[in-house]
Amino acid sequence: MSVVRFHALLDAENAVSVDRYLLGVTLEREDGFPGVARSLTVEVSYDEGTTWQPTELIGGSIVALNPPPGADSVSLPASAEDPRGGTVEQTIIRAYKLGKR
Fold first, then answer.
1. Residue-level pLDDT at 84
2. Residues in the chain where the model's pLDDT stays below 70
3. DSSP class of residue 69?
C-alpha cells in the first residue's frame, strides 16, 4: 500500500500567502521508503471539492495557479499506481488555507 504525500511551505496558520507556488508531491510506500510512481494524477479544488481542476506535474511538484477571488482553502484529490501495481486514491478536503494575498 502506498500513500501520496503533499509538501507545501505553510505559515503558522497552515496557509500559503502567495498566488503562485509549488506544491511537492511524493509517493510513499507503506514501509516508509519513497516509492516511484508508475502514474500520478493530482487535481485541485478551491471550493471544497464542488469542482475540480487538473494540475500539471513538473519534476515532482505541481503548480497551483491563481486561486479565484474569495477562495480560502485548497482541496486535493490524488491517484497513483506504484511499480508493483498497487494503487491509491485519496482526497484531502481543505488540505491547507489560502492566506492573505
1. 77
2. 1, 18-19, 32-35, 64, 101
3. T
CB atoms within 10 A of CB 45: 20
What domains can you pick out in the chain, each with its CATH number? 2-98 (2.60.40.10)
- Please tell me the predicted confidence (pLDDT) of residue 99: 78
Cell (9 digits) for 31: 514501509
What DSSP line would sit under 25-91, residue for residue?
EEEEETTSSEE--SEEEEEEBSSTTSS-EE--EETTEEEEE-PPTT--EEEEEEEEE-TTS-EEEEE
How far is the C-alpha of 20 from the C-alpha of 69, rounded, in Å?
Answer: 14
Closest CA to 16 of 63, 53, 55, 58: 63
Instruction: Provide the pLDDT for residue 75.
Output: 95
Q: Judge residue 64's burial from the number of C-beta atoms within 10 Å of its C-beta, 0-12 exposed, 13-18 middle, 19 or more buried.
A: buried
